[in-house]
Amino acid sequence: MLKDLCLLNGTSGDESQVRDYIISQIKDYCQYSVDNLGSIIAFKKGKSQPNKKVMFSAHMDEVALIITDIDDNGYLSFDTVGGIDSKVIGDRIVNINGVKGVIGLKPVHQLSAEEKEAAPTIKSMKIDIGANSKEEAQKYINLGDYAYFVSDYYELGNGFIKSKALDDRIGCMLLIELIKSEIEYDTYFCFNVQEEVGLRGAMCTSYQVQSDISIVLEATTAADICGVTGGDRVCVLGNGPVVSFMDGRTIYDKALYEMTMNIAKNNGIKVQTKTAIAGGNDAGAIQCSGKGSRVLAVSLPCRYIHSGSSTVKKSDIDDTRSLIKAIMQVVYD
Q: What is the mean pLDDT of residues 57-80?
């Protein structure tokens, strides 16, 4: 299921392929609706009615590129949809409406000394689809079309997975699994759109659900690579799910944070916290929506996030499953 989800294309405002797939997986297991922005709100009946309304959340969209101009020679200018470091996109193959293109850079032989020292900018790159003129390119490409990284799904090394869109198709997969399983209490599940451009879908779904407790399943930045030490690593692949106490958008509910860390300890589940106050996720919108909600984030550590080669470890996915199930035994009281 994770491979199927990751290989679908669905950036902010273009999530229909992902939404259709998710609906095909959950339609026989829950009640669901799609809001005006395109997010899915699902309700799963449990064996009992809980004391608190609990919502699990993940986002459907991935980072991508959007076409902004076509020059006279048929080259495409573009900008980013979501936060993408320009250093990770040069020479990448992209897919635009089924047309393949390569993101071109100025040849190294023509770079000045200053240019060689600086990172390439988005404005210095063009997408080359092999067109000879603007008119030829316009037969296939329109302004506002999305360009997606062409990235195969690989399993490598000792239990690692590499793909595009692991942020946050992992969260989507885990929500689908929960909806398909037997659960003790009535629960809401939201698959949100447009997280990568400002948590927009979550603003709408959380306002409609009005949950007392909201648990966001995400992927988060791991910098556990050569030359990075201590807290600068943020989190580490293989050390279990990441439970954050604060990030760039949210101060998480302290009682939920401590409860989750104790649950992991008491059940022998690997868990870690995030050693940098950075980034953000849908919890930032959910926390402040309507009457407000207590929020918790459980994230998969992910190397090279927001690129075509994001990498996670299978054992962390397994530990996240175990942690979520343990949380669900106590969070409704």
A: 97
Catalytic center residues: 195
- Mark out the alpha helices in 29-126 (DSSP H runs): 113-117
Cα–Cα distance for residue pair 55/42, rounded to 1 Å: 10
The tokens describing 46, both together, are 């449990």
> Side chain identity at 63, as an amino acid letter?
V
Rounded Cα gap, residues 324 and 170, in angstroms = 13
What is the spatial distance between Cα 200 and Cα 37, in angstroms, rounded to a whole number? 9
Query: What pLDDT is stored for residue 193 in this prediction?
Result: 98
**pLDDT band at 109, cuts 50/70/90?**
confident
Q: Which two tokens stand for residue 57?
A: 């959340």
The Cα-based distances of 225 to 232, 233, 276, 304 in angstroms read 10, 8, 16, 10
E strand or H helix at 289: none
For 304, what's the count of Cα atoms within 13 Å in the CB-facing half-sphere? Answer: 17
Q: Is the pLDDT of residue 217 over 80?
A: yes
| This model's pTM is above 0.85 | yes
pLDDT at 155: 95
| pLDDT classification of 119: cutoffs 50, 70, 90 | confident
Q: For residue 24, is it left (φ>0), alpha (ψ between -120 and 50) or beta?
A: alpha
**What is the distance between the alpha carbons of residues 258 and 270, in angstroms, rounded to a whole number?**
15
Do residues 214 and 55 lie in contact, with contact meaning Cβ atoms separated by under 8 Å? yes
Report how far residue 168's alpha carbon sits from residue 172's, in angstroms, rounded to the nearest whole number: 7
| 157 Cβ contact partners less than 8 Å away, ≥ 6 residues apart | none
The helix/strand/coil state of 151 is: coil
d(CA 326, CA 322): 6
Task: Look at residue 76 and give its three-state secondary structure.
Answer: strand
Say if CB 34 and CB 40 are below 8 A apart.
yes
> How far separated are the first and last CA of the chain, in Å rounded?
32
